[in-house]
Amino acid sequence: MDPNAPIGVFDSGLGGLTVARAIRAALPDEQLVYLGDTARVPYGTRSAHTVIRYARSCAAHLERRGIKALVVACNTVSAVALDFLRVELDVPVLGVIEPGARAGVAATRTGKLGVIATRGTIASGAYIRAVASIRSRVEVFGQPAPLLVPLAEEGWITGEVPERAVERYLEPLAAQGVDALVLGCTHYPLLRPVIEAVGQRVLGPSLSLADGAEATAAELAELLEARELRAAGPGGLELLVTDLPDRFAEVASRFLGEDVEEIDVHQVDL
Amino acid sequence: MDPNAPIGVFDSGLGGLTVARAIRAALPDEQLVYLGDTARVPYGTRSAHTVIRYARSCAAHLERRGIKALVVACNTVSAVALDFLRVELDVPVLGVIEPGARAGVAATRTGKLGVIATRGTIASGAYIRAVASIRSRVEVFGQPAPLLVPLAEEGWITGEVPERAVERYLEPLAAQGVDALVLGCTHYPLLRPVIEAVGQRVLGPSLSLADGAEATAAELAELLEARELRAAGPGGLELLVTDLPDRFAEVASRFLGEDVEEIDVHQVDL
Predict the structure, then answer these.
(1) Which of A55, B115, B135, B183 has the smallest number of CB atoms closer than 10 Å to its CB?
(2) CATH 3.40.50.1860 matches A97-212
(3) With contacts defined as CB-CB under 8 Å, which chain A residues touch B148?
(4) CATH 3.40.50.1860 region(s) of chain B?
(5) Closest Cα partner for A8 from A28, A26, A30?
(6) pLDDT at residue B246 above 80?
(7) C-beta atoms of A247 and B119 within 8 A
């Protein structure tokens, strides 16, 4: 395997760009190819059968581009399809749930870990399984927080509406003694300041946040290091989308944290 | 054409069930076949090319079931694809935008009409064109209110979060002298009490709301009457979906205003 081959990153849409952003910050010498399946977003409301079918077609497209590793920057796909992809692909496959769960376990001292995510991710039990699989005794309290997704996409990330929404979602966790909270959805890092401020008020001032995007980037760096697959640079990013939605540049730039007008964007058919 | 043939109703997802609900209330003797393209929802963020392609496949499926009329219970499709469908189908085709615009024009006395809808519907200019096409001098002020869609789907239809969101959306209309407001998205009737209460505070106590779903049902009744296509009964409803999403029964029941467990639901491939 060529260490200078690109890293594939895919998501149902543009939310996974927060993961691409974290990878770019941690591994600035790597070439990334990001595929957002914007024609079929969102996956979160699809059946597992459909999600697996879509995930396979995304992974196969990236594999044909000669990637050296695949990051599934989508909680829904990570929860449902990761095992299928690991069997089928010849390159290492990393999801966002296992790194997020490990970061959450490391962050809690009470042993009570909250996870906020979409309804589908919570219902899948993926975080509970991931915490159990690292032989941790930490107890997981899942809380669906679906409205934070459109709030992040709209850019309503400060002010009363997101504050009241976060408050309403975190209140049920207050009785559980939770002292660490995993941001279990790629959209949530945009709301991190509100989640942190409201969380410390509702759940206590010692609350720690664990960001699945950052944790995934850190595990990817370790994996590449261990397999001697670190690229020599220069790093870069190519964006592939299956549809060019309205406000693409605005929303993509917000998630990526840089102006996508400066980046190569191509539309592909899967 | 057989007057006892069913009426086809389609939408990108489940929001159009508010239109089916209004039709059932206005025309209780009619058989409805509702098709929700839940595998490809939402259309609002897709390109016009993609929306037209999807709309054609939905309409063709319903036409094969022998419908006597087609109601496009989706603002995005009504804005983008109605002319194509009218050319291609042999049955009358009704959208939700023209009836909503007519109801709005009838409701305003100041001649300043607000329209709240998704970003795509507002950007399409469809309500401005619809108002102009009825030779009205009413001025249209479009305001995207995209977060009201997930709020309706989540069932967050009372309390501070929807109140603050509606307030934030309506405030820009306050300076325009708007005295009537079209609910230009199939999801919004669920939030009607909040929109009415906040609207009367922000836009003035004489504010009238025009509901596109009710207006469409009323125009459909006139159309069937004029063409002698009223069914003899008994009425009924069959639900077709292209995917069975999570929480289908809960969300569908909320939009339809009755328990979908009591209704025939079939999954179809388009």
Answers:
(1) B135
(2) yes
(3) none
(4) 7-95+214-267, 97-212
(5) A30
(6) no
(7) yes
